[in-house]
From TrEMBL:
<feature type="transmembrane region" description="Helical">
    <location>
        <begin position="217"/>
        <end position="238"/>
    </location>
</feature>
<keyword id="KW-0812">Transmembrane</keyword>
<feature type="transmembrane region" description="Helical">
    <location>
        <begin position="274"/>
        <end position="292"/>
    </location>
</feature>
<protein>
    <submittedName>
        <fullName>Uncharacterized protein</fullName>
    </submittedName>
</protein>
<feature type="transmembrane region" description="Helical">
    <location>
        <begin position="172"/>
        <end position="205"/>
    </location>
</feature>
<feature type="transmembrane region" description="Helical">
    <location>
        <begin position="335"/>
        <end position="353"/>
    </location>
</feature>
<feature type="transmembrane region" description="Helical">
    <location>
        <begin position="119"/>
        <end position="138"/>
    </location>
</feature>
<keyword id="KW-1133">Transmembrane helix</keyword>
<keyword id="KW-0472">Membrane</keyword>
<feature type="transmembrane region" description="Helical">
    <location>
        <begin position="92"/>
        <end position="112"/>
    </location>
</feature>
<feature type="transmembrane region" description="Helical">
    <location>
        <begin position="144"/>
        <end position="165"/>
    </location>
</feature>
<feature type="transmembrane region" description="Helical">
    <location>
        <begin position="299"/>
        <end position="315"/>
    </location>
</feature>
Length: 605
């Protein structure tokens, strides 16, 4: 009953803000990272697990085995009917995650067999967390898969508890089933094992007497083995990347003890705090102070400890370069408050129950005072939830409704320029924006798909050597690149046009010989590079066609051909041999052909 009502309420709220009418409509999710994920979904549909993307960075590896934050929807795009577009699948996935997440907290307490009042309160806390704060921002910004596994990790931990504490005769089927769930969630996002591992450490340390050690740990190891073995495909490429990606990833790495305090007090600032955080933290503290949690004290202490751990990790681990890059620690504030919400729900239920007692005791007095404080905090969060759902012109944590929108004016103007002034004979040097000046999102991938033009650099900022973002080109500040070196890059990557937005880049190209500004609109300047277009570094020929996993050339001349496309292991040519060859300062090799015929078809696997 509680799960059904929670699901129905979430469906109603999401249907208003999405809106439901655009779930299969022509609008797309275009806010922040969503266009980038839609592009990856499209590539997953085209190439499967691993393939060759000719549209960015002079050829790059792509596929759902490589794109970790959108692996599941990209996989679905590859197996579902082609009548469903990448935009459709990404919208469906985003919508579905919002519904699944809404029932994860109450489902966890149901599995752990808590009483009905605590389950109902956990459902309310789950909805408030979703709509007020960083959860809402992450979801509307495109970090859907991480939010999915953050919520899903809670019922998974409850199932792990049941597995570790039940009799051996019941563990075989449960072990296999839980292993399959683990594999699915690990496939959905590579960070899934982290909250589970930390939970296990706390649980095994604090609940030793409840664990069937011999059978429970054997079953747990089997679950881990199933989860890993079923993900060997993408794990292989994670350990053995097909190309070098020189990134400068500083996302979600703010650190400082003050951020922990700000987060707990609901101060947004760099801490991304939300008002709901304060009553959750207060409820957990009051629960232990007033000696609640009597029957499940150790279990709830486990969830509280895990929550505190991730809260501290979120604002300290960013100082470590490895942890900062691999995990983007600030995102784990979501995990922290989800784990804290479970003991908070039990505490709130106990506090309000004691507050309603007729007998005059010190516990009733403290409970009534506590209930009053919590009621104020929760009421503020309910008001914030109403504001977040509203389409009124007021502040929102996430994207202002609606989420699904039609193409913006920047995309319209850029596509018009590409269709009018460019062709497939050369590439476009496109300056991406960390601040998302292009309609508020990372739209390069969508531009490439709609225009069928090739771009240098990537579909996102800070991706690989052949990149161009916010005044930096080919991994260097653009002002540090000499005119001779820039023209060398123009030739190596067959750049025929430039679209720039930063003042540094526009100033540089305005002064560069051989580059002419042919259009200007708002923050953008459009340039033409005055050079002969060719996709051949050595030899000659004409590009006839190119799409995912395929390059086609005709009138090819030369005994040894070097193409202005990157090489990937697994590429094949119809005749002759294909080898990697390194050119200049690019860490990734280009394609070299020997003994090729006049008509060349290159394919990937």
């Amino acid at each position: 009953m509680i799960l059904g009502l929670t699901f129905a309420l979430q469906f109603f709220l999401v249907a208003q803000t999405f809106p439901l009418s655009e779930l299969f409509g022509s609008a797309s999710l275009l806010y922040i990272d969503n266009p980038f994920h839609e592009y990856n979904v499209a590539m997953g549909a085209a190439v499967g697990s691993v393939g060759y993307d000719p549209f960015f960075a002079a050829g790059r590896a792509t596929g759902f085995a490589l794109n970790h934050s959108d692996r599941l929807p990209a996989f679905l795009a590859n197996i579902l009917p082609s009548s469903l577009t990448a935009a459709d699948i990404w919208k469906l996935y985003t919508f579905a995650v919002s519904l699944i997440a809404s029932i994860c907290l109450p489902l966890t307490l149901i599995i752990l067999r808590f009483e009905r009042n605590a389950i109902a309160i956990s459902a309310a806390l789950g909805l408030l967390l979703w709509w007020t704060g960083i959860f809402r921002w992450f979801h509307t910004a495109g970090m859907v898969s991480f939010i999915f596994i953050a919520f899903a990790s809670l019922p998974f931990t409850a199932l792990v508890v049941r597995l570790l504490t039940q009799a051996f005769t019941k563990t075989l089927i449960a072990t296999v089933a839980l292993g399959l769930v683990a594999a699915f969630l690990f496939f959905s996002h590579p960070l899934f094992p982290l909250p589970i591992t930390v939970f296990l450490i706390f649980y095994l340390a604090l609940n030793r007497q409840a664990v069937h050690w011999q059978f429970g740990l054997t079953a747990l190891l089997a679950v881990a083995a199933i989860g890993i073995l079923l993900n060997v495909g993408w794990l292989y490429y994670f350990m053995n990347p097909l190309e070098i990606q020189e990134t400068f990833d500083l996302y979600q790495r703010a650190t400082g003890g003050d951020l922990v305090i700000k987060s707990l007090l609901g101060i947004w600032d760099k801490a991304n705090g939300a008002r709901i955080n304060t009553p959750i933290a207060l409820a957990v503290i009051l629960g232990f102070f007033l000696a609640y949690f009597s029957s499940q004290r150790r279990l709830l202490l486990t969830y509280s400890g895990v929550g505190v751990f991730w809260l501290l990790y979120a604002y300290t681990a960013g100082d470590n370069d490895v942890l900062g890059k691999l995990t983007q620690p600030n995102r784990f504030t979501t995990v922290a408050y989800l784990f804290l919400a479970l003991p908070a729900a039990v505490s709130i239920a106990e506090i309000f129950c004691n507050a309603l007692q007729h007998e005059k005791t010190w516990r009733r007095a403290i409970s009534r005072a506590s209930a009053g404080l919590l009621a104020i905090g929760l009421t503020i969060s309910v008001v914030e939830m109403g504001r977040e759902v509203s389409s009124a012109n007021i502040g929102h944590y996430g994207q202002h409704p609606p989420q699904a929108r039609h193409q913006g004016e920047y995309a319209d103007h850029i596509l018009s320029f590409l269709n009018t002034n460019t062709d497939n004979s050369a590439r476009v040097l496109f300056e991406t924006s960390l601040g998302r000046i292009h309609d508020g999102g990372h739209i390069a991938g969508i531009l490439a798909l709609k225009s069928q033009r090739e771009f240098v650099g990537g579909p996102y900022v800070q991706t690989g050597f052949a990149s161009f973002w916010d005044g930096k080109a080919f991994t260097k500040p653009i002002a540090e690149i000499s005119p001779e070196k820039m023209h060398e890059y123009f030739d190596r990557y067959n750049i025929g046009w430039i679209i720039a937005h930063s003042e540094k880049s526009k100033r540089y190209f305005d002064q560069l010989n051989g580059v002419v500004c042919i259009n200007e609109w708002k923050q953008l300047k459009f340039y033409q590079v005055q050079r002969l277009h060719s996709f051949f570094l050595a030899g000659a020929g004409e590009l006839v066609a190119r799409d995912a996993n395929r390059l086609v050339f005709k009138a090819v001349l030369g005994d040894s051909i070097t193409l202005k496309y990157h090489y990937l292991p697994g590429m094949q040519v119809t005749e002759g041999t294909i080898d990697p060859v390194f050119i200049g300062d690019d860490p990734n090799p280009f394609i070299q052909l020997r003994g090729a015929s006049q008509n060349v078809i290159l394919t990937y696997r």
